[in-house]
């Protein structure tokens, strides 16, 4: 009996959606290696004799690789998610591994266009990590998409600071070793987690513990960011010995592992959920009635979206929900009496799941696409040229600014996910308002960069990194 209970608990642990979420956070820590370009570009520039224009072209190749996720999204629809992760890990290993061989003289020097291709291929591996992590966790947490996406994208930004700290522990004098870590580190983590990060059953369940779990995750995130910031400042202001740096790195790894407490406690220590908490039953014969009711509700919702007055969308959130509930009740009654014919919708509505082809024909998709393209470009320019900018202002150690921008990146993405959800749910404003405000604040940081005032590098990085809210 005891052995069977433990086997059941272990089975529950490996199918727990919080385990998937925590593993996706670790996976995303390796999906922000593109932000380390500011640290590795001076090494490439010095080893290969490039000028600033050539380094800028490498930065463009990196940005394209980080942004072109069409192939990753397409492969995730036809391949298992673990296979997509394996493809991304191989791309990352081959791309940046070859760059490391060229920079260290272990491979023949390649022309600039070939180096651009290698960096494109290596950075494009990140898109597979991003896609698999987001697809899995958004399906597992459909009612908490904003916080989930914000936390996952935040860890993608924090990856640069994490790898920089590990690099400071292992290979600090050898700057080319950072490229080796960028090539090998993410591949090792992805291979270890590729069978864990996937959609799991029971994802429609809303538990009373979800709020506490998200609060715990947010607390760990803030603690991690504060710790990294403190360690970074200590390493910059004082000449710390190798032992102390190693201790700091071990504590960092412990903080990264702390969120595993959530799935462990939910699977092994908390009491099993009550039957009334079940909203998705695993038996196929019990799923079918639910599916039929869901289809009927979706048809009514489709009709409601088509027929509701336009002024309803302009009402405050609570009033709008009340009006929609009234309209839905009337429509259900009319459909039951045969007074109206509920028509079949031709495609999904906003907030529902879209296939790739369905999204490509929607104006909303292209509005978001061009907003991101135009709004994030200036921030990426700062990140790509951060090493050269800090050197031009008289700073010798560029790693501190790369780590700092990774930390602000992390906090910005988490804050963007949280506050945009508050804006939408509580105040019924579109997320694009937060995007516009972030763009204005980022312009202040860019202006400060352009002026080149003494001592404003830290201030400018803070404001310029509002790109992460976009």
From TrEMBL:
TM region positions: 18-38, 79-100, 112-138, 150-170, 176-200, 212-233, 245-270, 354-380, 400-420, 432-453
Localization (cell): Membrane
Residue ranges annotated for the NFD4 C-terminal domain, each copy included: 360-417
Keyword terms: Membrane, Transmembrane, Transmembrane helix
InterPro entries for the chain: NFD4_C, Nodulin-like
Main localization of the protein described in the UniProt heading: membrane
Membrane topology note: Multi-pass membrane protein
GO CC annotations on file: membrane
Domain spans labelled Nodulin-like: 17-264
Protein name: Nodulin-like domain-containing protein
Record organism: Carya illinoinensis
